[in-house]
Amino acid sequence: MPADAASARPILELRGVSKYFGDLVALRRVELRVEPGDAVLLYGPNGAGKTTLLRTLAALSRPTEGEVLFNGEDIHRHAGLSKARVGFVSHATFLYGELTGRENLRFAGTLFGLDDLERRIDHALDLFAVRERASEPVRGLSRGLQQRVSLARAFLHDPDFLLLDEPFTGLDAASVKGLEAILGRLPGEGKAIIFSNHDFEQGVALARRLVALEGGRVRYDGPLSLAPLESLRITAGSKPRG
Amino acid sequence: MRSLSVIWAVFVKDLRVEWRSRETLAPMCVFGLLVVFLFNFAFETAHEETLRLLPGLLWIAFAFSGILAFNRSFAAERENACLEGMLLAPIDPSAIFVGKLLANLVFLGVTEAVIVFASAVWYNFSFLPSLGAFALILFFGTLGYVALGTIFGGVAANTRMREVMLPVLQFPVAFWVLILGTDATSDALRGAARGDVARGVFRVAGVSLIFAVVSFLLFEYVLEE
């Protein structure tokens, strides 16, 4: 009998997941299990499958083979269970340019069925220091400010799992530090973060676990401190080749 | 109840985005008026000629104006991957379909009202004697056409030549709604027997409701990656 997803310790996992786009194999038999408190750096060269893996965990992409499970339940049969507990930040902002930041968050909050929405919106906007500009149309904001509104959107429903695809892209130094501080706190609060980052050093500061991907396969999944960086061809300060 | 609030949120969002961008309704009305205006010069506007040509002319104007709406509807969702943003939420994708269908109905409904008014003026034709039947035909025909446009808009949004793909995909199916709509409109405007007009209305309504229900059921599969 599956655990009651609303109250049990949530677990997100991929079991034997492969994803093909025509002849292109984006993921090959990936096994991954993420629990609250995990801080996972997803690292690999361009085309390794990092974005596909994150999208699969977020239920945006259905695997060709294998299962994506939330507390033992297939997320595509019970999408409501996982989506309410997962936040996703991508290269795209998911924001309507003609709407203000606040309107975008209000729309997202309505889709998530959130109570006490205005208070949550204020809190999320304050968390990313973007409340002052929240009444302006998103189209008129800089890329960095849009990214901060997008992050506020992902945090709005207080997810247990936060999936972030290159979250520092477009942010200025102060915003990077602010986001690092927020993400750094989350595992201690019982949340899980899984993020991809092309800057290994920056990722290492936040992560405790490394999942190295190459050619759609997991080459390493374990504590960052024990990762065989040389055999994974990862050097400090490196950007992925390929 | 939650689906209703999602439908309403999507509907209001589409209207608000259009109100601020004005990228859909204005071109639709201009295009529709242009079709009606140019045909005004191509044909003699004697009453019999008008009665013969006006139904087809109206549905051509509605059809091509509608294509602009459906392309634009999903263009706005493609920007910044907003459609995916909606799919991150624990909602029934069919609620997105209904919200967007309602918004497209409003846009095409307003455009049709403008086109019909302009036709009445330019062709010196009164729609009043047959207004009730004409309105019903217009409503059901538009519902079926918009349902198809909304789902095929979603399909075409993920293709490379989306502006071309949408009419290529939609018209072979929407053909039935357009033909039945034209036929029923012709019967209504020339004051055909009540039974004939009623049959026309039921045919349009029946086909349109079938298309609307099927589109509603299939929409979530259109969005899957």
How would you describe this protein?
The complex is a heterodimer of chains A (242) and B (225). By secondary structure, chain A is α/β, with parallel strands linked by helices. Chain A contains seven helices and ten strands. Chain A has helices spanning 50-57, 79-83, 101-111, 117-127, 143-155, 173-185, 200-206; strands at residues 12-21, 24-34, 39-43, 65-70, 73-74, 86-89, 161-165, 192-196, 209-214, 217-223. In chain A, strand 7, helix 6 and strand 8 (192-196) form a beta-alpha-beta unit. The model of chain A is unreliable at 1-7 and 236-242 (pLDDT under 50). By secondary structure, chain B is mainly alpha-helical. Chain B has one domain (2-224). In chain B, 85% of the residues lie in helices and 0% in strands. Chain B has eight helices and no strands. Chain B is globular. Chain B starts with a helix and ends with a helix. In chain B, 47% of the residues are buried. The mean pLDDT of chain B is 91.
Could you tell me how far the N terminus lies from the C terminus of chain B, measured between alpha carbons in angstroms? 28 Å
- How many distinct folded domains of chain B? 1
Largest sheet of chain B: none
DSSP E strands of chain A, number: 10
- The computed structural class of chain B is mainly alpha
Q: Biggest sheet of chain A: strands side by side, in what order?
A: 6-7-8-3-9-10
Question: What is the radius of gyration of chain B?
Answer: 18 Å
> How would you describe the shape of chain B?
globular
Strand content of chain A: 25-35%
Mean pLDDT of chain A: 87
Low-confidence parts of chain B lasting 5 or more residues at pLDDT below 50?
Answer: none
User: Would you count the extended β strands of chain B for me?
Assistant: 0
Helix share, percent of chain B: over 70%
